[in-house]
Amino acid sequence: MSDHQDAPVTPVEAYEPPYYVAVFTSVRTENETGYAETSARMEELVKDVPGFLGMDHAKTPGGLSITVGYFRDADALTRWRSDAEHHAAQQRGRAEWYESYTLHVAKVERSHAFTRGEASPAPSAG
């Protein structure tokens, strides 16, 4: 996904479980053609998926990128996976932008958060 150099650095909040995460870990090729525009479009598009909760991004100095998408339920994740424009971006990613990637999908059973200055962690199940 896109770089967020100007955005405040805060993680997606802890939601009441259960919910789902899609963890996309990738190493990119040197080809940058169209990547930033497509990434920005995917971020815009996923926000319209009912049940989309948010997204976190991280990138190591060595080039490993991690994007975690949070979804209220399996149906929301399926809607995103099935989106025609997202599917086209996936195909282009395999053809041009990714040296390798993994996708892990998991059901979150426990979740909590901490923010300095708050009295206690946000409640969670489990």
TrEMBL record:
Keywords: Monooxygenase, Oxidoreductase
GO MF assignments: monooxygenase activity
EC number assigned by the record: 1.14.-.-
Enzyme class: oxidoreductase
Ranges of residues in domain ABM: 18-91
InterPro entries: ABM_dom (IPR007138), Dimeric_a/b-barrel (IPR011008), Jasmonate_Hydroxylase-like (IPR052936)
Pfam families named among the record's database cross-references: ABM
Protein's UniProt name: Antibiotic biosynthesis monooxygenase
